[in-house]
Amino acid sequence: MKTNPVPIIASFAGFVILLLVQASMPVHAKSSFAGTWEGKMNNLPGIDLKIEDADGKISGVMIFYFQERSDAGAPWHVASESPVPLLVPHVERKTLTFEVQHHKCHTCLELGPNVKFRMELAGPDEALLWKLENEEQEKNKELGPGLKLVRQSESPPGHN
Hints:
By secondary structure, the chain is an alpha+beta fold. Helices cover 18% and strands 45% of the residues.
């Protein structure tokens, strides 16, 4: 019985090319969630999510931008920002769930219960973010429209 080596060699070459292409992909292409994600409210920064993936272990920081205005007719402005670490991150396919610590009020040091979030990829550089109010909402996935997040492309050194 004779074996034709051409299909075997072609398959092997294709596999090697696939490995080389994957190795040269940017970090956020390997980890769907890695990168800096921005969510806007009132055309101002509302939330930034800075997510890192180190060998499949997700970590990061969520930055909340506190917006205020002097009266109902005045324009909104960012008054302060509050970075908090992501807690218990869990990835399942295109969905990342995590928690963050939450203070009982904006000026208090006392912590309340953690707040749960769900992030779902909607495209290569787009995602939706929901604050999960209760377990029933989380199970049934009745989440509403969500906050649109856009992944920021990496700028060359010296450009912000």
